[in-house]
UniProtKB/TrEMBL annotation, chains A, B:
Alphabetical UniProt keywords: DNA-binding, Transcription, Transcription regulation
SUPFAM superfamilies in alphabetical order: GntR ligand-binding domain-like, Winged helix' DNA-binding domain
Domain HTH gntR-type: residue ranges: 1-67
Source organism, top-level taxon: Bacteria
Provenance organism: Amycolatopsis melonis
Keyword DNA-binding: yes
The protein's name: FadR/GntR family transcriptional regulator
CDD domains the UniProt entry points to: WHTH_GntR
InterPro entries documented for this protein: GntR_C, TF_FadR/GntR_C, Tscrpt_reg_HTH_GntR, WH-like_DNA-bd_sf, WH_DNA-bd_sf
Amino acid sequence: MRHEQVLDALGAQIANGALAPGTVLRSEELQERFGASRTVAREVVRVLETMQLTSSKRRVGVIVREPSAWNHYDPRLIRWQLDGPARPAALATLNELRSAIEPCAARFAALRATPEERGRLGALGERLARTARARDLSTFLEFDIAFHDLLLSASRNPMFAQLSEVVAEVLTGRTGHGLMPPEPQPEAVALHLEVAAAVADGDPDRAERAMRDIVVQAREEIAALVADGGAEGE
Amino acid sequence: MRHEQVLDALGAQIANGALAPGTVLRSEELQERFGASRTVAREVVRVLETMQLTSSKRRVGVIVREPSAWNHYDPRLIRWQLDGPARPAALATLNELRSAIEPCAARFAALRATPEERGRLGALGERLARTARARDLSTFLEFDIAFHDLLLSASRNPMFAQLSEVVAEVLTGRTGHGLMPPEPQPEAVALHLEVAAAVADGDPDRAERAMRDIVVQAREEIAALVADGGAEGE
DNA sequence: CAAACTCAAAAGTACTACTTATTCAAGATG
DNA sequence: CATCTTGAATAAGTAGTACTTTTGAGTTTG
């Protein structure tokens, strides 16, 4: 508990650049700053070290590393960045990642999904279409996330599957900012149905192409969002 | 030092399935097993916990989590898997990841690379072609890695850039297994030149397409490697 | 038989003592 | 005067002990 508090506090400061790279923290100083014991301070530093956010050198202290050294795939770091002032930029980065992965994931899902998964994907597509027609945005988002989540795990690649949280975050972030069109775009819905159909048919090329169309569309949306929404912070 | 030894030992055991999911380890037991102090044992467990390899519950112990919960992007976990019996499968997974990312990275590189980067990419392409003609496989690999590394960092997406180690590993693994053709394929070399040219011209579509051709080719190679090389273990 | 209560086991936290590596500087040596 | 060596100070690393908190499991009681 104590551990997590301190980790979040210190990690967020580093992730948001409040502690610039090169900054040296002495472990004793950390204990005072957070009113934590040596044990807690040390374990927090160990964790930050494994995330490559810091490096420790004897007789020197804990050194904040360059962002390029960080493990940007660590869920904690992603969280800290999304909750900080750089949220729009972080969302853009994550969206680019997803736009790269998902078409490929769709391809593998078409090749490897179980019959049951293919069925569920189709069902989710149908529900997606229905909630879109009903202009029920929040339910739409829910099914949208479920759709992408299922697709990623059906790809049978653990590294793809792990990105479902990222995708959920990107999709939510888009809706949350109120910058999404008042109702889901019919083309996007049609493309989701196309992906589901292609996966059901076991047609990797078609699945990949349809998914690519989806993410390209999303990429353009988010790019616009960052362009004029970058200053709003939270 | 001590810390890292124990972490590697225990982490590798978990990563390779020697300690099945659900296994419960008591921290005192760990101290004995590795002859480590309480401090070291605790910090190791903390780190494994942040990697989502384990979860700790009071009055129970340290529980090994399901592979699906692991943070598969952690460089340490990747290392443990590559060094273990599941190396071929791990290489296949990583190669799929790279095959998803690199075409997209090429696109962004074409849009965002600095003039200097565009120049260096072209130069690397040339050197690649030369070493290919000279049948100098090890130098070829070196330039190949440098080429992909530069492209990824030129994409200006930290999450893409971070995968350069993964790409290097995949490329090396392919050559290392001696399953690569005795000389680099002319088509592959031509495609690298095409990527460099497209990036130089700032043509994202062309860059993406050429890179996609490269990774698709690699994907097929590795799939074959896994099919008949899966049993050779280390 | 179910619900609450008690007890003990194991992780979490705190603190102290000791070890080791590294930087910085003073002094010796060429 | 420069360079190399040596040594002391410092801060992180490691070890070990003591105490706290949570919670699973067994037991008692209505």
